[in-house]
Amino acid sequence: MPDTADAPFFHESSGTVRFWVLVDEKMIGASVGQLALHHCFRPTAQGDDPIDTFRSHLADIEAAVRRRVAQGAIEPVMLREFDLRTPSAQGHG
């Protein structure tokens, strides 16, 4: 079970949320940019908090990390906007 040192956090200088996901019984480090979170999940929001957005969409974000690892990505996994789109939404612009 992760301790507080493993909690997701916003890394201000890189503009990313950094976090860990359990994949095949191993904790994998990953990150996602604040702008990607905003554009994918809260495009109409003003001043949205990246950690709040991250937590609100945790299942989708963790699934994206697992997909990237299954495709051969190595740690640390950097998610892009494209990675955050669900397969059903990818064909809809």
Report a brief summary of the structure:
With 93 residues, the protein is an alpha+beta fold. It is 34% helix and 24% strand. The longest helix is centred in the C-terminal third of the chain and has 13 residues, at 58-70.
Structural class: alpha+beta
Note the total helix count: 4
What is the overall pLDDT average?
88
- The separation of the N and C termini measures 38 Å
Q: Which parts are unreliable, with pLDDT below 50 for 5 consecutive residues or more?
A: 88-93
Strand arrangement, largest sheet? 1-2-3-4
Helix/strand order: EEEHHHEH
Percentage of residues in helical conformation? 25-40%
What about the largest sheet? 4 strands, mixed
Question: How many E-type strands?
Answer: 4
Q: What gyration radius follows from the Cα positions, in whole Å?
A: 13 Å
- What percent strand? 15-25%
